[in-house]
Amino acid sequence: MIKRSLLIFMVMGFFMASSSINAQKAKHTFKFSATEFLLDDEPFQIISGEMHPARIEKDCWRQRIQMAKAMGCNTISASVFWNYHESEEGLFDFSTENRNIDEFIKTVQDEDMWLILRPGPYVCAEWELGGIPPYLLRIPDIKLRCMDPRYMAAAERYIVRLAEEIRPWLVTKGGPILMIQIENEYGSFGNDRNYMINLKEVWAANGIDVPTFTGDGTTTSMLEAGTLPGSAVGLDSGGSPDDFELAAKINPGVPIFSSETYPGWLTHWGEKWARPDTAELLKEVKFLMDNKKSFNLYVIHGGTNFGFTAGANSGSKEYEPDVTSYDYDAPINEQGWVTPKYLALRNLIGSYLPKGVRKLPKIPDPVPAIEIPLFFPERFTSIWDNLPLPVESETTKTFEDLGQDYGLMLYKTELTGHKAGKLIVSDIHDYATIFLNGEYTGFLDRREGINTLELPDSNIPNPVLEILVEGMGRINFGRNLIDRKGITGSVTINGTTIMNWKLYKLPMDKKFIYNLRSSGRVVNKQGVFFRGLFSLAYTGDTYFDLSNYTKGIVWVNGHNLGRYWEIGPQKRLFCPSSFIKPGLNEILILDLRVTDARPVRGMTSMEGN
């Protein structure tokens, strides 16, 4: 009898809970008036903080979202990177590691926050190729971000698949997603209105029935090319009445908001860390709060460009690769800690809370950080001991020509005719070390426009020329998006084209790293892997200090932490606690210049870079 009553009680409880959930799902609406966002038919000021799940370890998602909420945000904005979920044509991953978009959205809702989704297909975001999959660059004459049927077929396939993931989470279904962005800053790239309209129609055809918005710079040309009738206008950034008036004139009848208000900025290799003026930021946010303008802080927390995900720009220099850290001088720093900027924004936003409303939530505790004492990796193996079978070709080929997306490629040939003199590689994408008869001769660097080297006379009948090319981040903004890797042109010596190459693919992916083997030889030739073991009693976040090394890539327990480079400003790579474990751990370092083992240690912060 007791068991039966308990069962009836449990069943009744289930249906009551279900009814409650269904009632909650039916409760909210989000739409536009001619000038405002309306949540449940009431004016709603979006105070959003942007973060990218792909740049944050899954275990830290909730803490970062709670940090945004405690700073005064009511909304999270999140970009979805197409190439992070479809690395090969038709092969999608929305479940492994931090690719589980469904779980990220659920976490946002669990924390009583709203969500703006920025799904692309192009997002920029200082991410490799702006989120577009590099497999598309295997098509020789592909055009991106337009109605090229090959690009559009791939983009539609992605939209159809992503729509399956996000449809249950739309505000119209009781979820937290208020609206989605159509492309990103298209007015800075092109003016194909048919392309933008087509994207909007594809989303609608796949059941995405929430409002949409665009985001563009605050110039007439950008807004005319990038906005869409019926879509809210995002301004990157909107910091003055003139910005909002211009947008209203060009695309009237929809709300206008600052879709990217910048608390920080990006940093390229070889630059000083970007540290924008906090006083100017507070002035802009005060204007937005005083005038009840909605805004999105890009970014409230940046995270990390793990692996090969960091992008590049083409601006004052032809090629400007981004550092691995995406700290961005954001209010919440790379490891999820409070900064003075965070506290200043929290105080400012908190001062606008209505009378009688409780204070902002308590700031959550950060993930603990640990130091790892100095330890000494040893030489493990080299690129030269792990060369695959070559592809033979009369001419040089790009990575994409051989179906490779990331990593390195070795170009090898025997010289006849011209054997010394002026070597020109046109064009090198992006960094190369040159060897003549196994001896290091010099380097080429696209970032500095260095594509020429003087080859010495080796007095050998058929000297061997080897060019080891590292592909760095693909350009993610502007007109130079078609950014293939490797040798994208030709190789000449004294003006004569060098032919008959052997090409070795070195993708540096998980399979390649897992299969690394040591021959036992000691080869004093640049391109060495160093392996070190370190033991931990407990875990925490740490920064591995690579200041004793020159240029390369680091893996910890198989996780690719990203690139380091002696030119700085970054000399320490962030390693989240989830990448390490109590007991024995392994670090693997590929350095392109160093041949002798050097010590490494773990630090509690980025400070000191």
3D structure, described in words:
The protein is α+β, with helices and mostly antiparallel strands. Helices cover 21% and strands 26% of the residues. It has an 8-stranded parallel barrel with strand order 4-5-6-7-8-9-10-11, surrounded by 5 helices.
Give the mean pLDDT: 94
CATH classification, class level of the largest domain: Alpha Beta
Major sheet details: 8 strands, parallel, barrel
Question: Can you count the beta strands?
Answer: 32
What is the name of the CATH topology of the largest domain?
A: TIM Barrel
Termini separation: 70 Å
Portion in helices: 10-25%
Which structural class do the helices and strands define?
alpha+beta
The CATH superfamily title of the largest domain:
Glycosidases
> Which runs of at least 5 residues are low in confidence (pLDDT < 50)?
1-24
Radius of gyration: 26 Å
In CATH terms, what is the architecture of the largest domain? Alpha-Beta Barrel
Number of helices: 11
Q: How are the strands ordered across the major sheet?
A: 4-5-6-7-8-9-10-11
Total domains: 3
Strand content: 25-35%
Shape: globular
